[in-house]
Design goal:
Number of helices: 4
Radius of gyration: 28 Å
Number of strands: 5
Distance between the termini: 43 Å
Helix content: 55-70%
Structural class: alpha+beta
Largest sheet: 5 strands, antiparallel
Shape: elongated
Length: 218
Amino acid sequence: MLAACLEFLGLALCVSGSLLVMVSCGMPMWKVTAFIDSNIVIAQTIWDGLWMSCVVQSTGQMQCKLHDSVLALSSDLQTARALTVVAAVVGVAALTVTVTGAQCTNCIKDEDLKARVVHAGGVLYVLSALLMLVPLCWMANNIIVDFHDPLVPSSQKREIGAAIYVGWAATALLLLGGVLLCTSLSRALRGVRGAYPLKYNPTKTISATGDFDNKHYV
């Protein structure tokens, strides 16, 4: 029962994390305009995302444009685009593997094999989290370095956008859920071994005359 609860909780966390990975990948708010001037009245706000750039006017109007060329993007945006897509694909593959070996399904009959399949799904979820964590940390580091660089003009300075925070939340959910799925393996194996207790044959006793007791024979 405990293994099934760990599987359900881990799967719920991982599915939520995978959905947040997709949301973060599609959000245009990876880099946002930094408000560092004395005048806080800004006519427009610029959002830079993996797939598009948006300009939000002070009147509330927003115009977005897709990136014309992948090669024209900076190296961190190119890497983030590739790794986030791979992380989302690995998350979908991990969901398929985990559901196949879950205790609530009958795709696999062998309980031992089902536990190992769920463990493999947990490892895939952890891999998805690591793939997502690399571009997030790289992008955040570049934003912070450029922000404190005096050679970068104020108009080109950016701040960490909401998409990066959503990605960090997704990474935390994927890591926690993947660890729970991996932990459920040992619980499930204990349950399988406990369902088949070992049986021992009664030992033969020796009578006072030195012969084996005849009551153990048919």
